[in-house]
Amino acid sequence: MSTYYFVADIHLGLRNGDPSDREARFIAFLDSLAPGTGGLFLLGDIFDFWYEYKYVIPRGYTRTLGALARVHDRGIPVHFFVGNHDLWTYGYLEQELGMQVHRDEWYVKLEGKYFLLAHGHRMGRQPCASRFLHGMFHNRLLQVLFSCLHPRWAFALARKWSAWNRDKHNGSCKQDMNLYKPVYQYAATYDRPVDYCITGHIHTSERCPLPAGGELIVLEDWLSVGPSGPVRGDIGIFRGTEKGEIEIIKAPVVVHAH
């Protein structure tokens, strides 16, 4: 049986904690995947901001993009689920890196188990402010108008908004619960059998049984909490064992020169 890996909310590019350490840990994880791995599922907000122009992509992700290309070249399927920070991809990830991009939730059977996979930001009835923002982000006309901005200004504007949003909600238990409840309700009332619903978006580790017998698993983000704080960053592992259980481990620690 194959092994499958799930991660979410790396937020590469966000100047929070130690960005270099976060990227190094993510690359070490990618390079550790063995040929024959059944699949890598990137469940949204891998990049803190990603917007593709026809001939321009954001700078700062060269090492990560190279590592993702190596994963694909080793024959490992890479599934990229758009999040609320990196939904503006228009072909680069598929054409250059061989990823399979999912813009909506994906219901799939792996090794005899039924999975419902998504970033989570569009599952259930989200808070009103979130629905308004997500509607704007997914509006094609607004995307075209945003493309008219010069990349220098567009990327600067997006990064300022992202940093402000992270500072505003950092450590907010109320915010986490407002996001968690609709995801749980959506998974609990899904009209098909679900053994595992795996999402990100909420930035905390959660495991909760579903009424029909499955389990909701929310993966913690990879944002560093400081040079002396605990290492965050959930990796979900499904080895397709006889029991078919999901194991959660923490992102590897990488010692690197500054």
Put simply, the count of helices is 7
> What value does the Rg take, in angstroms?
18 Å
What does the largest sheet look like? 6 strands, mixed
**Rounded average pLDDT:** 84
**Strand-and-helix sequence, N→C?**
EHEHEHEEEHHHHEEEEE
User: Separation of termini?
Assistant: 40 Å
What topology, given as strand order, has the largest sheet? 4-3-2-1-10-11
Percentage of residues in helical conformation: 25-40%
Low-confidence stretches: none
| Domain count | 1
Strand content: 15-25%
Describe the oligomeric state of these chains in a short phrase.
single chain
- Give the overall form: globular
State the secondary-structure class. alpha/beta
Please give the number of β-strands. Answer: 11
Descriptive account of the structure:
The chain is α/β, with parallel strands linked by helices and 258 residues long. It has one domain. It has 7 helices and 11 strands. It has helices at 19-32, 62-73, 92-97, 128-137, 140-147, 151-169, 173-188; strands at residues 4-7, 39-42, 78-81, 100-102, 106-110, 113-117, 196-199, 206-209, 215-218, 234-238, 246-250. Strands 4-3-2-1-10-11 form a 6-stranded mixed β-sheet, with helices on one face. Strands 5-6-7-9-8 form a 5-stranded mixed β-sheet, with no helix packed on it. Helix 1 (19-32) runs parallel beside helix 2. It is globular. The model has no long low-confidence stretch (mean pLDDT 84).
